[in-house]
UniProtKB/TrEMBL annotation, chains A, C:
InterPro entries assigned: THDP-binding, Transketo_C/PFOR_II, Transketolase-like_Pyr-bd, Transketolase_C
Cofactor(s) required, per the database record: thiamine diphosphate
Protein name, as recorded: Pyruvate dehydrogenase E1 component beta subunit
Limits of the Transketolase-like pyrimidine-binding domain: 34-209
Compositionally biased region (Low complexity): 1-17
Region annotation Disordered: where it falls in the sequence: 1-29
This protein's UniProt keywords: Oxidoreductase, Pyruvate, Thiamine pyrophosphate
One Pfam short name: Transketolase_C
From TrEMBL, chains B, D:
Organism: Paraoerskovia sediminicola
Cofactor list: thiamine diphosphate
Residues annotated as domain Dehydrogenase E1 component: 46-326
Keywords, sorted A to Z: Oxidoreductase, Pyruvate, Thiamine pyrophosphate
Keyword Oxidoreductase appears in the UniProt entry: yes
Protein name (record): Pyruvate dehydrogenase E1 component alpha subunit
Cross-referenced NCBIfam families: PDH_E1_alph_x
Keyword Oxidoreductase: yes
Coiled coil segments of this chain: none
Length: 363, 383, 363, 383
């Protein structure tokens, strides 16, 4: 095959910071501008200050402050018994976090990169996810597992995974994904405060995105952790995504608007439970759905969203829901990742196709 | 009491020979100084009772009242000796065969069989008896115990303000595991974590010689007790059919953990005299001669012989104990057969601690589905 | 909640053996009647006789012959270097199988029960599934992982799982599921002969089902491992399932026929790749789809099948594809499993609903 | 040659002091009898060359030609000493930092950087050089090595017909791992399997003192070399900055495996002088003084001092070696910068060995999508 000369319809790929605290109730405090990774650190600091049962476990999270510096300064502040550098063994980390939860702690675990979560899969799906049900509600598992997730950063093998479907398919877990600094801080605090285990995905490619953050937002007044939100309203197509692709989706909506296509962008936020009500309400208005995610297509979250939307909105659908996703391949080497990841052009192509306009491929 | 001086020569802590002869062993005896006759009789009764409960549960399975049962026959000393060494505030993370440990923790008799009747994933409230639900995934509980112990340390540090709390008196977490479990990554990782943090945890391995059909030498060509030293954890090998020796070494290990000395690994050498579970047919993989040989080292017979020799046990006491055992068995049976199946919708209970919209919808959907079957002229069903 | 008196529409739940070698080319040899588990053993024996590079690894597979006796007699016949009882460590089993494949072997691994596969998740999804791609095709991984799967047998915790979606979502693997003795024997031989890693699911509840088996069937002439097959034709609804529920689906189709509803039953067989062509062709005929599986609904295979069918058959669909699945709960205790597993009544309820007839729940 | 008799006193096999003083150690020396001057010079050249390649790759990363590079600076002796002990038919399963081992396996220079440029998941053909792709998941490769070695044994048994082949001459699998990797379940499980089957595998652990920011004592409070004995595997600790000692102990371990003696664990005590990778900033977690102290124990300087003292190395030879190193570096650079990105559709290549309908459809779909972008009046693009 000859390699193609790719001409993008995007005018630029400027990072957007997202809408910040859209839908969040603020307590009127002064806000500061933080990167997403600093916002996470701020959320951790506040959660630890609020509740001494909150402890952090992970590799390199102490002196180094984590490879993404999310926990920077926390060991200094809270000591090495609350910010615990662990041996290099992820099953050990999650397994001991479970034991600490038995003792009444609220452990927050850092898995250094998405690709290292599989070695602790059993402790997550067979133990953590089931302990509350297993013990008939006697032993809650308020464990938060932070996972830097996704690609687009030119990383080495096993550093760009999108394993969310594995966890969304696992009963007993909650799964959330943040896309902007305010959500990073607030949802992380909500996750830690939640009595259920939460898989908390941090999109690596957005760690450096800046935004205004109110660290002290009232958790109960804020948008609940399990709610989706409409980031941009539109009338022609509902575009659902989360995490790393939220910025791309908003860019795509802007680009489409220039061509007269009105896209409603939904940041799903919670991947388990999925806020089907918000998605379905949007699709009932637009009649069309595009879901985009980085993970492989087959049995990805896109399938679940498409299937459920079809169940709920069958009479409203003008076209079959359409998925724009990573291919069913192991994450490719960095120099090829742009041919794996959905980008603005592939999303717009999907939008065109769901509108019956053919799309790039058949123009 | 007959106490001889001949020490065991096989590196195994042993106070009672198979024939009930008692050896003096100052290192161990000092952990048993408080044992008066009542305490000795108590240990004996414990062993007899749990053996009887175990037999009853096996019978209940054969009669279709239980779905499955993993018998502990032969492991009574290992479980009672260690279980009785614990303090109420210690916390046990066990595998699936530790019925006698659960008994020591004060689990209600009927609660011992709930899991095996197939009506619950945990028969008791772990926070009440301080024993987690039986773990089926081999070795996973070793990490939970270690994490629990890390939490105990963290609490102590937080409370004292000092990095190394002075003269601590810590609760201890105890992980029970089998010889087969020694091969699992999780167990070895738990040794790493326990050693690194010097967590107050005791790993109590019942080497009952078999992991289903696999003999222990498939898991290790060297004694299991040797494993822990390479992780920086002291190991002790004890005759698991000698309830006194087990009690002594477990007390010592607990004391080490309690006082800030970190983890200990105990290998209790014993034997699974019955099948792996009631679904297993051990005649396919092991010889009657081996089973016979271990029957001669039986922990209950051995302790009875010792107690009789020491004048602590006589026929009257024996029948009193047997009656207690029969009562326990009857209680298990009565409790078991009276257990009703849970309400269908409990399938959805406790999956989440806080409402989960997706599951709530499924619950409502299924409730509606079930309602569709209700015969209006039939009064409400069982349960 | 009051427990309901459940009246089943099924006249009986007699096990059906399935259609046996439907679509299989036989080489004219005499066939014998075997249980599904014996048929698997026969398949293993033949694969080992045909190729000395085939070795078996697993717990208790030697002298005991496996807890389901599938490997009964094989160690006696082929020796303990080809039928290898392993230490009790599943990651070790799969990891060493990968190493043996590096050396040119074709390992067949037995995971004793479905619930024990999670401890080796990394070796399967990060290593086995990717090694061929990672090495640019230089190192094939012809490893077959046999997993007794599913519920309905009154088993203990972790012994009734349906983890197929995890593997179908994992690029690089093939996933198959057998439902009758002939398929058990033939597809297992095909899986072992395949140069890709194959997750091979054996439905526990059908181990004792008997059927005629031709052990010597020509593999190339037989129905390919990745093809679905229509087990019963029908005109009103397409009912897709696999493995343990195939028998139930056929029973449901019989019961529905009595009520005048014509169900086409598709045994999916291959869960990766999915034979969407066969499914879509059926749905184009019937206009309606019901998928049923034991696994949790969210992000299960049913979502993928529903989404893809909607993509391919949107204009032909009379109703939204419908899923009848296990709930999003940890597998419940044995005495409750009938309230988790799809059964004949729940399937018929789904069929009624997709036909717009309300179904039990709303009658 | 200056050879003193003072044996190392710290339980570490060492033939060369930090200042290049050579000790006699008959147990080790017997594995080095064949080393003539050319061989010694060869080892030296190897170390200098790989150090130069490593520096060049680091520079290429700084210049944006590589996405990442994990430097081996300081570990040359550990890698060359062990790598040169191997036979061509042995098979290596390494981690990501073993560039010098790959060099010993005959990997083409440019192939060393393909992975780190982000254009391939494996830079070479593992079957040609008998070295697997660099493993990123910590410890996973230890099981692959063990399984490979089990396969070697199985082949030997099949070939000989005997259960224990007589006087075997087996290929050996070598697993390279780090100090951090010792905590992973997979590594410990690999010890179990290797011991059980007495597989011909050598575990070569480079204890470079750090796992990213974590010092080795977070992984273990006892020397790593102690770990293996508890699994029934002999362990040996060697000065990993002494190329001769590493060569000797690795040869001995390989010989044991080759002749049916089973696995060996080698702990090579060394130091990662550079950052974990080019993305790391080690000043955040370790002191300059420590780095300095280890620089004084540098493996290359040490060997040079010894060779100069022994009259095997002079200025001429040194410049010849430096030129060879420069040539290698230039070749890496030229090769690297000439590497083109792969064709987009190769994303779909080799995912399956046999056609997979689902992926084939996705490939076709994506090819069609890409075709939609082709400017008809532009001639076909790069690659
Ligand atoms: C991860 C995992 N693998 C396999 C099994 C199946 N299994 C249940 S018990 C058992 C043997 C355990 O042996 P051991 O640890 O010695 O304990 P014992 O049964 O002798 O008490 C096996 C293989 C399991 N439960 N979990
Ligand atoms: C399973 C897993 N967890 C975490 C990581 C992240 N990681 C990469 S290298 C490394 C440190 C490894 O240390 P060590 O084993 O000593 O090898 P070294 O880097 O020193 O050569 C870590 C934590 C990983 N690659 N894989
Ligand atoms: Mg055992
Ligand atoms: Mg290291």
């Amino acid at each position: 095959m000859s390699s193609a000369t790719v001409t993008s319809r995007a005018t630029g790929t400027t990072e957007t910071t997202g809408p910040g605290g859209a839908g969040q109730a603020t307590s009127g405090r002064a806000v500061s501008t933080l990167t997403l990774s600093r916002a996470l650190g701020a959320g951790l600091r506040r959660a630890m200050s609020d509740d001494e049962k909150v402890v952090l476990l992970g590799e390199d999270i102490g002196r180094l402050g984590g490879v993404y510096r999310v926990t920077d300064g926390l060991q200094e502040q809270f000591g090495r018994h609350r910010v615990v550098d662990t041996p290099l063994a992820e099953s050990g980390i999650v397994g001991t976090a479970i034991g600490m939860a038995f003792r009444g702690f609220r452990p927050v675990v850092e898995i250094q990169f998405d690709g290292f979560v599989y070695v602790t899969f059993d402790q997550i799906v067979s133990q953590l996810a089931r302990m509350h049900a297993r013990t008939a509600g006697r032993v809650p598992m308020p464990v938060t597992i932070r996972i830097p997730v996704g690609g687009g950063i030119g990383a080495a093998e096993h550093h760009s995974e999108s394993p969310e479907a594995y966890f969304a398919h696992t009963a007993g877990l909650r799964v959330v994904s943040v896309a902007d600094p305010q959500d990073a801080c607030t949802v992380l605090r909500q996750a830690i405060a939640c009595d259920d285990p939460v898989i908390f995905f941090e999109p690596k490619r957005r760690y450096h995105v800046k935004g205004e953050v109110d660290e002290a937002i009232e958790l109960d007044a804020a948008l609940p952790m399990d709610a989706a939100r409409v980031l941009r309203t539109g009338t022609d197509v509902t575009l659902v995504t989360w995490g790393g692709l939220v910025g791309t989706a908003l860019d795509a909506a802007s680009a489409a608007a220039d061509e007269g296509v009105s896209i409603e962008v939904v940041d799903l936020r919670s991947l388990s439970p999925i806020d089907h009500a918000t998605v379905a309400a949007s699709v009932r208005r637009t009649g069309r759905l595009v879901v985009t995610h980085e993970a492989a297509r087959t049995c990805g979250l896109g399938a679940e969203i498409a299937a459920t939307v079809t169940e709920r909105c069958f009479e409203h659908l003008e076209a079959a829901p359409l998925r724009v996703t990573g291919h069913d391949v192991p994450y490719p080497p960095a120099r090829l990742e742009q041919h794996h990841l959905p980008d603005l052009d592939r999303i717009l192509d999907g939008v065109d196709r769901v509108l019956g306009r053919g799309g790039v491929a058949t123009r | 009491m007959t106490v001889t001086d001949a020490p065991p020569s096989d590196g195994v802590a042993r106070l009672l020979d198979a024939d009930g002869t008692r050896h003096a062993a100052p290192d161990h005896d000092r952990w048993l100084e408080d044992l008066d006759e009542a305490a000795l009789r108590g240990l004996y009764e414990d062993m007899v009772v749990v053996r009887r409960i175990d037999a009853e549960a096996t019978a209940l399975q054969r009669q279709g009242e239980l779905a499955l049962w993993p018998p502990l026959l032969g492991q009574e000393a290992a479980q009672i000796g260690s279980g009785r060494a614990l303090r109420p505030d210690d916390f046990v993370f066990s595998s699936y065969r530790e019925h006698a440990v659960a008994y020591c923790r004060g689990v209600e008799l009927v609660d011992l069989v709930r899991v095996w009747r197939g009506i619950a994933a945990c028969g008791w409230d772990p926070t009440a008896v301080r024993m987690a639900s039986p773990q089926v995934i081999i070795g996973a509980q070793a990490l939970h115990a270690t994490g629990y112990a890390m939490g105990v340390l963290t609490e102590a540090v937080n409370a004292s303000g000092a990095d190394d709390p002075d003269g601590p008196d810590l609760d201890v977490a105890v992980a029970y595991l089998g010889d087969g479990a020694m091969s699992q990554g999780d167990v070895n990782e738990s040794f790493v974590f326990a050693a690194t943090y010097q967590a107050p945890v005791v790993f109590f391995c019942q080497n009952n010689q078999w992991a289903i059909s696999e003999p222990v030498d498939l898991q290790s060509r060297v004694p299991l007790v040797d494993r822990s030293a390479g992780f920086g954890i002291p190991g002790v090998r004890v005759d698991g059919n000698d309830v006194l020796a087990v009690l002594a070494v477990t007390r010592e290990a607990l004391d080490r953990a309690r006082t800030g000395g970190g983890p200990t690994f105990v290998e209790a050498v014993t034997y699974r005299r019955g099948p792996h579970t009631t679904a297993d047919d051990p005649t396919r993989y092991r010889d009657a001669a081996e089973v016979e040989a271990w029957a001669r080292r039986d922990p209950v017979d051995r302790f009875a012989a010792y107690l009789r020799g020491a004048g602590v046990l006589d026929d009257d006491e024996e029948s009193r104990v047997q009656e207690a055992a029969d009562r326990a068995a009857a209680a298990v049976r009565a409790g078991c057969t009276a257990l009703r199946d849970p309400d269908p919708l409990t399938v959805f209970d406790h999956v989440h601690a806080q409402e989960h919209a997706g599951l709530a919808a499924q619950r409502a959907e299924y409730a509606q589905y079930l309602d569709g079957f209700v015969d209006d002229d039939v009064t409400e069903g069982q349960s």
